[in-house]
Specification:
Layout (H helix, E strand, L loop, with lengths): L5 E10 L2 E9 L2 E5 L2 E3 L6 H13 L2 E14 L6 E12 L11 E8 H5 L9 H10 L17
Parallel strand pairs: 1-6
Antiparallel strand pairs: 1-2, 1-4, 2-3, 2-7, 5-6
Length: 151
């Protein structure tokens, strides 16, 4: 058997001191997460995060920076996730757009509101990503390069 991590993308979106989070159904009940999801075949990472934000929040997303590339595993027998975190801004909200299956609502929450509910976070990476963003951790998107269909 070949081991491979689950590659995911997430968006850290801040507006007026509040962060856009999704409230989603999970095996552990309703939990908060950044708009996030799996990297799909035939797309680059930037296209993936734009798609995930739109599907989960009905907002258009403009990635501006790479915040972090995180590797996380809950315990030794759990799946490993390679998570690419972007920051950027939202525009063009479509309140009539249906959200992805499992997404119950979107919320704009302060860092303090997020930190006060650790049991409701999908993973510790939710708050870690916000804190990395708040400390100014930003890298240019040019660090990411895609060569799809390139010989």
């Amino acid at each position: 058997m070949v081991w491979k991590p689950h590659v995911t993308v997430c968006a850290i979106i801040e507006r007026e001191g509040r962060f856009l989070l999704v409230e989603e159904e999970t095996g552990q009940g309703l939990q908060f997460n950044q708009p996030a999801g799996h990297f799909e075949e035939n797309e680059d990472l930037i296209a993936a995060v734009k798609r995930e934000v739109l599907e989960e929040t009905a907002w258009q997303f403009k990635p501006e920076h790479l915040v972090a590339i995180q590797v996380w595993r809950k315990h030794p027998t759990a799946p490993t996730f390679l998570r690419v975190c972007f920051s950027g801004s939202c525009y063009g909200h479509d309140p009539d757009r249906a959200l992805d299956t499992g997404i119950v609502a979107t919320h704009w929450l302060s860092r303090e509101q997020v930190a006060s509910q650790p049991d409701r976070l999908r993973s510790p990476l939710v708050l870690i990503g916000i804190d990395q963003y708040l400390t100014g951790q930003r890298h240019p998107l040019s660090m990411l390069q895609a060569f799809l269909g390139h010989e």
